[in-house]
Amino acid sequence: MGFGEAVSTCFGKYATFTGRARRPEYWYWVLFGVLVAIAAALLDGAIFGIDSGVFSGLSSLALLLPNLAVTVRRLHDIDRSGWWMFILLLPLIGAIVMFVFMCLRGTPGPNRFGQDPGT
């Protein structure tokens, strides 16, 4: 899966919390989110000045639901419930655990959340 395909898949599954998402889909989506955030910050600075966050806020709001959905689907790929996202409420430790989860290889073959998306 390439960058464009991952972004179109995530927008196609905008609020789909079922199924599985492989590592490339998740990490290309993260890259897309970072690029959008940089572009929004540059637009904010160029148009409204440094203290404004109009475009940054709007882009964050627009990408919130697909971010949550692809993260839940990524957790499903490693055979974990989406409720594991709440581990992010633990300062530092939660972010480290979530990062490790997002880097893990998905379970081969079908798991309780569906078929292997690579097949």
Describe the structure.
The protein is mainly alpha-helical and 119 residues long. Helix content is 60%, strand content 0%. It contains 4 helices and no strands. α1 (3-12) packs across α2 and α2 runs antiparallel to α3 (54-77). The longest helix has 26 residues, at 23-48. It starts with a helix and ends in a 16-residue tail after the last helix. The model has no long low-confidence stretch (mean pLDDT 93).
How far apart are the termini? 12 Å
Alpha carbon gyration radius: 16 Å
Order of helices and strands: HHHH
Q: Treating each run of at least 4 consecutive H or I residues as one helix, how many helices?
A: 4
Percentage of residues in helical conformation:
55-70%
Which structural class fits the helix and strand makeup? mainly alpha
Overall morphology: globular
Q: Uncertain regions: pLDDT < 50 for 5+ in a row?
A: none
What portion of the residues fall into strands of 2 or more residues? under 5%
Count of beta strands: 0
Instruction: Report the biggest beta sheet as strand number plus sense, adding barrel if it closes.
Output: none
Structure at a glance:
The protein is mainly alpha-helical and 119 residues long. The chain contains four helices and no strands.
Keywords:
119 residues; mainly alpha
Fold blueprint:
Elements: H1 3-12, H2 23-48, H3 54-77, H4 93-103
